[in-house]
Design brief:
ATP binding; binds adenosine-5'-triphosphate; 21 helices; elongated; about 10% strand; membrane; ABC1_TM_sf; nucleotide-binding; transmembrane
Amino acid sequence: MEESFIQQIYNRNQKNSFKVLVGLYKGNYLRIFYSAVLFIIKHIPAWVMPIAIANVINAATIQAGGGIRTIYFNAIIMVILVLQNIVTNYYHTKLHSYAIRSVESGLRASLIKKLQELSIPYQKEMQSGRLQSKIMRDVEAVQTLSSQVFVSSLNIFVNLIVALAITLYNSPTVFLFFILTVPISALIIVIFRKKIKTSNSEFRQEMEETSARVIEMIELVPIARAHALENQEVRRLNHRFQQILTKGFHLDIIQSLFGSVSWASFQLFQIICLVFTGILALRGSITPGEVVMYQTYFTTVVNSVSSIITLIPTIAKGLESVNSIGEILTAGEVENHENKPKIKQVDGNFSIQQVCYRYPNSDQTILHDINLEVKQGETVAFVGESGSGKSTILNLLIGFIQPTEGRILLDGHDMSSIDLRSFRHHLAVVPQSTILFSGTILQNITYGMPSVTEEELKRVLLAANLWDVIEKLPDGLNTRIGEHGDKLSGGQRQRVSIARALIRNPKVIILDEATSALDSHSEKKIQEALNTLCHGRTTFIVAHRLSTIRNADKIAVIENGRCVEFGTYDELMFTKGKFYELKQLQM
Ligand SMILES: Nc1ncnc2c1ncn2[C@@H]1O[C@H](COP(=O)(O)OP(=O)(O)OP(=O)(O)O)[C@@H](O)[C@H]1O
């Protein structure tokens, strides 16, 4: 799949999260600019009001100027400036909010797209809870960062510049006093910045980890309940919450200390400023109105500088989230289909040649020199002890993982050199634990199919032995089946899964047979459905049922990652080797 624009921004600015953030707004720069201009207009009252107030005070206290006319004139100016704020604020918000919200949804869309491309082993490694936390929580932190940085920093910088400029124009002495705040604030920022960044990063990782555990726990509730392990589960999570408490507490303390130190320093400055301008007024250098004016501007300067300081934790958190999202968007563990030829037709001939496999995070080779020739339409059953490597072979055949040595040929094409998506259009996978989603039965069966005719649907339902089940349901095919299909029985779920495979009319089927025991009636129904499904298609089954094994064209016995026997049922029974032993054991 093509890299999204957001992915490109991440790849180009891997080390610099601030550059990434700015880059994300490409296409919105003009909107942001107009929003900033409107902000300046809407904010004019904040700068003009102190002057107008000073004029009114001076007109009232010093019998100079225009008296009542000055008071009225300044009042009218103030009213106009205040009222225009409502309109300009509306358009200012409209523009920047659209920009920020579109980046927010763009980030989520890019993450989802990337998740669909990442290799299956990588996804398993990352855990769904952590991924979910990145998609929801981190993107939200980036959105908060954007609005804070844009709205607050604009507010801060514009206020600061105007207050300082007016003061400089009126009194350079007071101006010099004002800018003394800069080194003080810089010092405070330097002292706290690194601590806040580290603390934020630790807290974010802890949250992600806990998120993963919580999702896992929710999925495990029935198992925990069935084994009376509720308390253990609660304890396990409580331990994680304790970690969050410690890390979050540490973060809060640093942030709060940072806030209070800066607040106290600036309040002290404000008191000094009042004393300083008061003395200047006593000496007659400035008027009483100007004392109020400078005090107001100084409050603006102080508030602006302390706002920059209070913004820092949010910025640190947001930039940490920019990094966190980048972990996914720049991950290289993707299924690479770029520039690989698509296959137009699949017959279903497989040649597995000298295949070995080792999981990336392990130094143990799981599969050794697997060699199998499978003809179009044949059914191959893999049997063997648990952990012998059967599911790993299925994952290799789907292309979720690639052989570390050897190769797999599909109709003569090396699977590593073709666009696997073109093969998977002709493939149906029926996993051991049926994966259903919380829609209707119809939606679950026709998942990913653009259109299905009534006759086709009926044929599939009959073949999957689902017709009777559907007929008994009040809403028929439109019955909602609950999360993961919880409202269906295990056997019914398996048959829905078989129907989903059937409707795709695949050329190749990969089937990890469910191990759970079913009653003989249900077992018979499933076996009939499976027979229809596999008929005339190349099928690979991890087989547990006797009937499946009996019906397979070939049986491959896997032992410790090696294929120790390969042949028909009768051949393997005749040679009285491993398969014979396994059968004896089962019986
Ligand atoms: N992601 C992984 N990382 C490392 N080792 C793994 C991973 N997945 C599986 N294994 C190991 O690979 C071996 C083969 O596993 P596999 O799931 O293929 O066995 P299986 O024959 O299908 O077992 P079962 O019949 O119980 O499903 C096991 O020893 C397992 O521990």
